[in-house]
Design goal:
28% helix; 24% strand; Maf protein; 203 residues; 8-stranded mixed sheet
Length: 203
């Protein structure tokens, strides 16, 4: 989408993420919303705010304000990740920097499996969590969604770029790894869908 300079459209919604997988998820979930979705790439925005929040919601709010100020377009921002019950919610807000640095997808998968080595299946429960914030300069809305699953003992060979934990997250509803869920299945059960419903952006 190429936006004309000065174009104003309150039906536009900026999806404030540089993660191509996350952007694709929102395009799928918002396909019938009637909103004209805009990406950071469309606007040439490459910067990122420092995520200093202690919770997913705090980071999402920080990002929503930051990208609205840059774009002046109603903005949807999200922060989320994996929360493993056995590890008291780890990695949580550190999902991307869990090992102490900005790890690759492969490194994050290996680190998670190492941390959970020897833990039996019945104790490998976890959540995929999404905290989403809508901000249009005046109004702010928040929503949170959760998808329950089981952390597998080994990783699948398929890795969805930007979503490493989907290769080890077993969906109990569909009986398959998250990385193998179809677009239709994602629409039926998705933590981002639940968050969007709370924001009133989809039914």
């Amino acid at each position: 989408m190429n936006l004309k300079q000065g174009e104003k459209n309150m039906n536009q919604l900026l999806i404030a993420t540089h993660n191509p997988g996350k952007l694709n998820d929102y395009r799928i979930l918002l396909a019938n919303s009637g909103l004209a979705l805009v990406s950071l790439t469309d606007l040439g925005i490459t910067t990122e705010p420092e995520e200093t929040g202690k919770t997913f919601l705090e980071n999402a709010e920080l990002k929503a304000r930051y990208y609205f100020e840059l774009s002046k377009i109603p903005t949807l921002a999200e922060d989320g990740g994996l929360e493993i019950d056995y590890l008291n919610g780890e990695p949580g807000v550190r999902s991307r920097r869990w090992p102490g640095y900005e790890a690759t997808d492969e490194e994050l998968i290996a680190f998670a499996l190492h941390k959970m080595a020897g833990v039996p299946d019945e104790q490998r429960t976890c959540n995929m969590t999404a905290a989403a914030v809508y901000f249009d300069g005046k109004n702010m809305k928040t929503g949170q969604g959760f998808t329950k699953g089981i952390l597998t003992q080994q990783a699948d060979s398929k890795i969805e770029k930007g979503f490493p934990y989907r290769s080890i997250f077993w969906s109990t509803k569909f009986g398959k790894l998250a990385v193998h869920l179809s677009d239709k299945e994602k629409k039926q059960l998705h933590h981002r869908k639940e968050a969007l419903q709370q924001l009133g952006l989809i039914k």
